[in-house]
Amino acid sequence: MTASSKTRASARLYRGTALNIRRLSAALRRGELVAVPTETVYGLAADALNPKACRAIFTAKGRPTADPLIVHIHDWAQLGQLAQPNEAAAQLAEAFWPGPLTMVLPKTDQVDDIVTSGLPSVAVRMPGHTLFRKLLLDCGLPLAAPSANPFGYVSPTTAEHVRISLGKRIGHILDGGPCRIGLESTIVDLRDPAAPRILRPGAITRGQIADVLGVEVLVGRPKGRSSEHLPQVAPGLLKRHYSPRTPVDLHERIHENEWRGSPADEAWLFITRPAGRLPRNIFWLDARGDLRAAARHLFGTLRQLDGAGFRRIHAELAPGHDLADAINDRLRRAASKG
Ligand code: TXA
Ligand code: MG
Q1: 238 partner at 20 to 30 Å CA-CA among 21, 226, 270, 338?
Q2: Helix axes 159-166, 291-306, angle to 10 degrees
Q3: Ligand 1 center to residue 75 CA distance, Å?
């Protein structure tokens, strides 16, 4: 295996055997990058305590170093090495970890500036995917991992997505099948436990977090902050994010007279399958409009449509709140021109 060869042609895909987990732990301990499955999206992981390895994540993704990384842990005991947890964090961990929730907390001095973009806080998550948990346990390291996509492109929800877009820049991809949730984790800022704030909506909802903490949960970045403070309070706020190359137009509701008779080189993406016989440029995320299934299929479908040569993608927003908010957040970013 020439995994660390400089002339590497393409990443190797690993099935989740015990031997492969040991091989990939060894690669992580050597400071190499490994793409990993999580229940949300695939991540591009490196030893979070190795600044050089973390720097390589930014290079591989083409990501600006001003956009900090999420650190993944196997168990609660690892958190103290990275962050200063408070009671709110303990309550949320009890309720939602392992799972699709990331908490922003004051960092310890063991976490290098490259991980946090120089911020005094760190984002931490305990993922639920079985294979990723095995790898975290085996290597014994906290793993920094942003989504495993080139910066600004649609997040990957299969190992194949990772191979297609980063396969020439990384050596190892752990294949854990399609991601169960399909949208990135909910990020909650807990630096002030009395005023928790959702920085990115995900499968864990504002209401669920409020129920556990018993306080009001704020959403979005605080008003009146100048853009130079953005990294500190506003992750993923770079608006153009998750974007296909094909222009995306959003619609609250798409009416039948809009898509019937539209040119064949424009795609129409619905949450639910429209009734009746459909032309070939009509797509949907779930036949019956189940939002969990729609979330799971969103990024894969955007990639598929992006590769199909359409001139434009018209997308209908999801109805309702909670998971719909998370889906619509990604659709808005996909459609953002700026
Ligand atoms: O589901 C997920 O969260 C996936 C999987 C791989 O775990 N990861 C993910 O990472 O979506 P990424 O890098 O694509 O998005 C992480 C976001 C970034 O937008 C970053 O700005 C924010 O987390 N973030 C990281 N550290 C932060 C901090 N200290 N304060 C505020 N935001 C932070
Ligand atoms: Mg990302």
Answers
A1: 270
A2: 30
A3: 19
CA 19/CA 13 separation, integer angstroms: 13
What secondary structure letter does DSSP report for 4?
Answer: T
Identity at 90, one-letter amino acid code: A
Element (H, E) at 208: helix 206-213
Full residue range of the structural domain in which residue 213 is found: 3-219
**Cα angle for residues 242, 73, 143 (degrees, 5° grid):** 60
Tell me if 240 is assigned to some domain: no
More confident residue, 250 or 222: 250
Question: Tens of pLDDT along 232-272?
Answer: 344 445 555 668 999 999 999 999 999 998 999 999 999 99
**What whole-number distance in Å separates Cα of residue 159 and Cα of residue 150?**
14
C-alpha–C-alpha distance, residues 16 and 19, integer Å: 8
- In one-letter notation, the amino acid at residue 75 is D
Q: Which residues line ligand 1 (CB under 6 A)?
A: 38, 40-41, 43, 67-70, 102, 104, 116, 119, 121-123, 125, 127, 145-147, 184-185, 187, 199, 235-236
Task: Please say whether the beta carbons of 209 and 217 come within 8 A.
Answer: yes
Residues 174 and 306 in one domain: no
**What pLDDT is stored for residue 233 in this prediction?**
40
Closest CA to 291 of 330, 318, 314: 318
147, 44 Cβ separation under 8 angstroms: yes
> Which of 199, 219, 239 marks a domain boundary?
219
